[in-house]
Design a protein that fits this description.
Helicase, Ruva Protein, domain 3, alpha/beta, seven-stranded mixed beta sheet, single chain, two-stranded antiparallel ribbon, 12 helices, elongated, Rossmann fold
C-alpha cells in the first residue's frame, strides 16, 4: 500500500482501526513523503543488505526499506499496530514483524536466524525518550551490524555527532564515538510528523568501528570515568573525578599531568585518546 505518508491516509487508518497515538511510547508518525526515501537510501548500502527496523508506525519507512533491501525485520512494541501493519505491508514478502521491546530482544540470535550471510544495518525513527538506551544497547552488544541510521531529536543528534574536545560534546558523545563513527545526514522539521512534536529532528548514521579508536584495559572503568567527569562539566576534573573514584584530588591532578593534560582541564576539553590515557593511568593506580 503506497501513500502511507499522506495525512488523510493516516487518519483514515487511525479511524478504521481505532488507533490513537501513545504519548508514553513517543509515537509521532512521519507524514512528509520525502523523508523516508532519504533515510532508506542513506541507510542501506546495497540490495544484499538485511535491515532491522525499530518501530514501524504504519510502515512508511518499512516500505521504503523493503524496496531497497533483501529482507527487513521490524521490531514493534505496540501490539495495536499489528493489524494495521498486516494491511499496509501486505504487498511485500520480504518483511517480518516482531512484536517485542527491542531492549528485550536477543538481537544476536535474531541476526543469525533472519539474515544468514547478509550484511546487516539498523534503521529507525526512534522515540526521543529511548534514544540513548537503544543506541547504547545496540553498540555495547557489539552486534554484527555495519551501521545504524536513526532519526532523533535535533539537539541529541548534534550532541551525538559533536567533535570531542568541544563544548557541544558529552558523555554519550564519547561512548558513541568509541564504538562508531557518527555523521549527521539531514534535518527534519517538526511539521513532518503527525502529531507534530515540540522539537525538530535530525537523521544521523553511525558507522560501526571494527576496532575502538583507542586501547584501554578496562572499558567499564573508562566509561565510568567519562560519566563522572561530565557529571559536573563546569568544574575542573579533579573535583568530579575525586568523588567518582573516591580518591584525593591531588592524585587526580597528578594523573592528568602524567597524561599530558592540565590539572585545570574540564571534561569537555578532552579528546577520546585523552580519556583513554587518563583511564590507563588511574586504573593502574587501583591495582
Amino acid at each position: 500500500m503506497d501513500n502511507l505518508s499522506n495525512i488523510g491516509r493516516v487518519r483514515e487508518l487511525c479511524q478504521r482501526y481505532g488507533f490513537t497515538f501513545s504519548k508514553s511510547l513517543g509515537q509521532n508518525f512521519l507524514v512528509n513523503p520525502s523523508v523516508c526515501p532519504r533515510i532508506a537510501e542513506q541507510g542501506i548500502a546495497s540490495p544484499e543488505y538485511g535491515v532491522i527496523e525499530i518501530g514501524a508506525g504504519f510502515g512508511v519507512l518499512t516500505v521504503e526499506l523493503a524496496k531497497r533491501a533483501k529482507k527487513v525485520v521490524v521490531i514493534e512494541i505496540d501490539e495495536k499496530l499489528l493489524p494495521v501493519l498486516e494491511e499496509t505491508l501486505a504487498d511485500y514478502s520480504n518483511i517480518t514483524v516482531v512484536n517485542q521491546d527491542v531492549l528485550q530482544v536477543d538481537l544476536a540470535a535474531l541476526i543469525e536466524r533472519e539474515f544468514p550471510g547478509m550484511p546487516v544495518a539498523v534503521c529507525a525513527n526512534l522515540p526521543y525518550y529511548v534514544t540513548s538506551p537503544v543506541l547504547m544497547s545496540l553498540l555495547e552488544r557489539r552486534l554484527p551490524i555495519e551501521s545504524i541510521t536513526v532519526m532523533v531529536q535535533k539537539e541529541a543528534a548534534e550532541r551525538l555527532c559533536a567533535e570531542m574536545g568541544t563544548r557541544a560534546c558529552g558523555a554519550v558523545t564519547a561512548a558513541v564515538q568509541y564504538y562508531s563513527q557518527p555523521r549527521l545526514l539531514f534535518h527534519v522539521s517538526r511539521g513532518s510528523f503527525l502529531p507534530p512534536p515540540n522539537v525538530d529532528s535530525s537523521v544521523i548514521r553511525l558507522d560501526i568501528r571494527k576496532e575502538p579508536p583507542c586501547a584501554v584495559p578496562d572499558e567499564e572503568f573508562l566509561f565510568r570515568l567519562i560519566q563522572g567527569g561530565f557529571s559536573q562539566r563546569r568544574k575542573t576534573l579533579p573535583n568530579p573525578l575525586s568523588g567518582t573514584l573516591g580518591r584525593p584530588k591531588a592524585e587526580i591532578s597528578a594523573a592528568l599531568e602524567e597524561a599530558g593534560l592540565k590539572p585545570t582541564a574540564r571534561a569537555e576539553e578532552l579528546s577520546l585518546p585523552d580519556w583513554a590515557a587518563l583511564a590507563r593511568i588511574l586504573r593502574r593506580g587501583q591495582g
